[in-house]
Every structure is written in C-alpha cells, then in structure tokens.
Design a protein that fits this description.
By secondary structure, the chain is an alpha+beta fold. It has three domains: 152 residues, 2-Layer Sandwich (Beta-Lactamase); 86 residues, Helix Hairpins; 148 residues, Heat Shock Protein 90. It has ten helices and twelve strands. The strands form three sheets. Strands 2-1-5-4-3 form a five-stranded antiparallel beta sheet, with helices on both faces. It has a five-stranded mixed beta sheet with strand order 7-9-10-12-11. A hairpin with a 3-residue loop joins strand 11 and strand 12. The radius of gyration is 51 Å and the shape is elongated. It starts with a helix and ends in a 10-residue tail after the last strand.
Length: 468
C-alpha cells in the first residue's frame, strides 16, 4: 500500500511534468510557426522584387543597380528562372541543384499560385524555397525560384529546446521540494490526529483532540472526531452503568436465596418451615428468570437487526385477546379494564413483540393503579399512523422522573417497584419494541391523577382498515 505522503509527492511531480510539457509544446510550436512565417514573408518580398528584373524575352535576371541591397544581390546569386513547364532557363552563380517541381506543383504555379517547400540536402541544413510565378498581361511567362537557409531557425529552436529542458529540470527539483513541504504541511494535522487516536483507550475516553490547524477542513475533522469520542464515552458509560445495575439486580435475589438457605440450615426445622423457605427461594428464582429474559430481550434489540418479523397486523384483536387474559387479575385487584377502540388501519408489526409491549404497559399500569381504579386502552387513527394508548388512574409520576423513565433499570419509586416484582427493564423494552417497528413511545403524567403512555406506529397502506 502506497503512503498518502508519497502519493501527494508523485501527484505534484506528475502535475508539474504535465504543465511543463504543455507549456514547452506551446512555446516551441508557437515560436517555430512565427519563425516559419517570418522566413516565408521575407522570401515572398525578395521574390516580388526579383521578379521585376526578369527579362521577358530571354528569361534572365538583369544586372543589379549600384544602390541595390545586399540581400537582393545574394538572392540573385541563388535564384533560378524556369519556364512554365519547369525547364531551367537561367541560374544564379550560387544556385545549387535542387529536386525538380512535381506536375501538381507546376499546375498550381501555372494558375498563378505561389508555393513554398522545405528541402533537406544530404550534407547541409534545411533549405526553404519559394516558387513564384512571373506574369505578364495576365499570363504566367516564367517561374522564379529563390531559397534561404534555415540554419538560423534550426539553431534558434535547438537553443529553445535546451532552455526548456533546463527549465523543466529546475522545475522538477523545485516541484519535488515543494511537494515534500506540501505533504508535510497537509499531513501534520492527520499525524497529530493519529497519534491522539492511538493513545485513546476505554479508560481514557475523556481525551479530546486539540488540533491547531489553519484549515477549516481539519478543524471540522477534529470536531467530528471529538463528537465521536463523546458518543463512544456515552455508550461505554451506559454499558458500565448497565452492567453495574444488572449485577445489583441479580445480586439481590441471590442474597435472599443464600440468606434463606443459611437461616434454614442453622437448626432443624418443621416441614412447614422448609416449605416456606422453598417458596421464598422459588419466588426469587422466578424473579431471576424474569430479569434474565428481560436482559436477553434488550441484548437482542441492541444488535444491528432487531428481532422482529413485520407483517400486516390488526391491533384490536390483539388488544381484546390480551384483555381477556388479564381481566381475572384486574378483577382480583378491583381494577376496571376499558377498551376504547376506533377502526384503525393495520400496522406492519410483529404480533409477539407488540403483545410483549402491551403486557409491559398493562403490568406497569396494574402495579401502580389502586383498587377501584381504572385502566383504559385506546386505539385511534391519525394520518399515516395508529395510536395505542394505555392510561391509568394511579398515583402518577413526578415531572422530574419522566425524561429518564425509559432508561434501563430506572425506577421512579425503587422500593415500590421491587415490592411489585419489577425489574426496571419493562419500559426500556417497550421503547425498543416501538422503535424497532419504526414508531415512538411517549409518557404524560400528573401526580395523584394518573399516567398515560402513547405508542405511535406507522400504518399500512391507506384504506386497509382492520375489521376488529
């Protein structure tokens, strides 16, 4: 695996090379084009001037005048006069044998076109040649050829290439040094973050990132990292508290069992005494079983995939069946159970889990509602949802306890909860089941008047109303 620092350096050097290559091609091509255009313009100017000296009758160049320019004299020495068919009629003293014109070139010249071509002799530098038509009375009478060496142009372009190569080498060195600096500046905050992360463990989750970075992205990274640590710290603290609470809840019935056995064994007892001891221990074992099942349920809901199987489900039959089962217990406690069910759509629900939710809410209401009290179960529709309410006329819950009521092992009245056999996990399980169904649970309470729990669940498609 390639280090990111190395990747930054390579990317920087690659970028420098690409830019240098593009710049060099642009400069070289541009200068070569400008020089070629300059040479062609010079040749055309000389050819136009020399064409005026061609003798129309003989096809020769007349002698130069005394005030003629040096370049004109040199051009005359290398000039060649041809017939329209390409036959050489006159040659300057300095002219050399060059490749003849092709039929296509001759045809273009006979139409009055001026042609340029580049010749590369075996033992000399490149030559630029112009073939210029000499006209009279609208007809091409002769063809004038002149040439000039491209040695100066080639030397200029060769020097430019050397300069560009030297510039490229210098820029690569500068780019390499700059990429090292850039990589160090860019990755220093990341290295600081890594070093801090390596020092963090469960006992040191309070450690936070202090990143003095001048860049907004790294500052945001530090804040996100610290927010993640806050969440982890909260989770681990919650787990630590949960384990402590669970151990305490398990320890209580174990202590009762152990104490009962020790007292019973201190001396000989009657059969009734042994029976009472066994009944006491059986109650504590049942309490341990209830606690264990509740812990297992919460552990299942703590995973990535909650243990629910969602199918279209009518809630009213489920409520009615459960009321029939709990009615004897309610009558024994002289508590009235009332069902107020409006027609509601089906929900996507798990029958077993929603039954467990209702049992927990009704157990809680039965435990906190005095004789002659009343418990009402309501079903009503709201847009796209179904509302299930369990309302009692019990003692109510103080306002300061409501925000924490669905926490694991939290009890508004610990002594009363233990007397009723509660584990402190029932409402936490209710919350997990509701959220696993995509719903919510809320609580309202007035001390001395009663408490109402409201579970809101997503409804199935509109129009699918349960028959009851």
């Amino acid at each position: 695996m390639v280090a990111f620092r190395t990747h930054i350096r390579r990317s920087a050097i690659a970028l420098v090379l690409i830019l240098l290559t593009a710049f060099s091609i642009l400069i070289y091509t541009g200068l070569a084009t400008l020089l070629a255009q300059h040479v062609d313009r010079e040749l055309l100017t000389l050819a136009e001037q020399e064409a005026a000296r061609v003798e129309l009758t003989t096809g020769t160049l007349t002698a130069s005048e005394d005030d003629e320019k040096d370049e004109m004299r040199e051009a005359a020495r290398s000039a060649v006069v041809l017939s329209p068919s390409g036959t050489v009629l006159w040659k300057g003293a300095a002219s050399m044998t060059r490749p003849p014109l092709s039929p296509v070139q001759l045809a273009d010249l006979q139409r009055g076109l001026t042609l340029y071509d580049t010749i590369t002799p075996p033992h000399d530098g490149s030559i630029r040649r112009i073939s210029f038509p000499v006209t009279h009375a609208g007809a091409v009478r002769y063809l004038l050829q002149m040439e000039t060496s491209l040695r100066l142009v080639d030397d200029t372009l060769r020097l430019l290439m050397l300069l560009l190569a030297a510039l490229a080498g210098a820029m690569i060195v500068v780019g390499w040094i700059g990429s090292r600096w850039l990589a160090r500046e860019a990755l220093t905050p990341v290295e600081t973050l890594t070093a801090t992360a390596e020092q963090i463990s469960v006992p040191s989750l309070r450690t936070r990132m202090t990143l003095a970075a001048p860049y907004e992205e790294f500052d945001r990274l530090a804040h996100v990292f610290n927010a993640m640590l806050d969440r982890l710290h909260h989770v681990f603290e919650g787990q630590r508290q949960f384990i402590a609470d669970a151990a305490h809840e398990i320890q209580t019935p174990l202590t009762v069992i152990k104490g009962t056995i020790e007292v019973t064994l201190q001396k000989s007892r009657t059969t009734e005494d042994y029976r009472d001891a066994l009944v006491t221990n059986l109650g504590q074992v049942e309490r341990l079983g209830t606690l264990t099942r509740s812990l297992l349920t919460l552990a299942q809901f703590s995973g990535d995939r909650p243990p629910v199987t969602l199918t279209p489900l009518a809630l009213e039959p489920l409520v009615q069946d459960l009321i029939k089962e709990l009615s004897p217990l309610a009558e024994d406690r002289k508590i009235q159970l009332i069902v107020d069910a409006q027609p509601v759509p089906r929900v996507q629900g798990d029958a077993g889990r929603l039954t467990q939710l209702l049992i927990n809410l009704l157990d809680n209401a039965l435990a906190h509602t005095p004789p002659e009290g009343r418990i009402t179960i309501r079903l009503k529709p709201i847009p796209a949802h179904v509302v299930l309410q369990v309302e009692d006329t019990g003692s109510g819950i103080a306002l300061e306890h409501l925000p924490r009521l669905f926490e694991r092992f939290y009890r508004a009245d610990p002594a009363r909860a233990r007397e009723s056999g509660g584990t402190g996990l029932g409402l936490a399980i209710v919350k997990e089941i509701a959220e696993a169904h995509g719903g919510t649970v809320a609580v309202e309470s007035t001390p001395g008047q009663g408490t109402r729990f409201t579970v809101t669940l997503p409804a199935c498609a509109a129009g699918d109303v349960s028959a009851g």
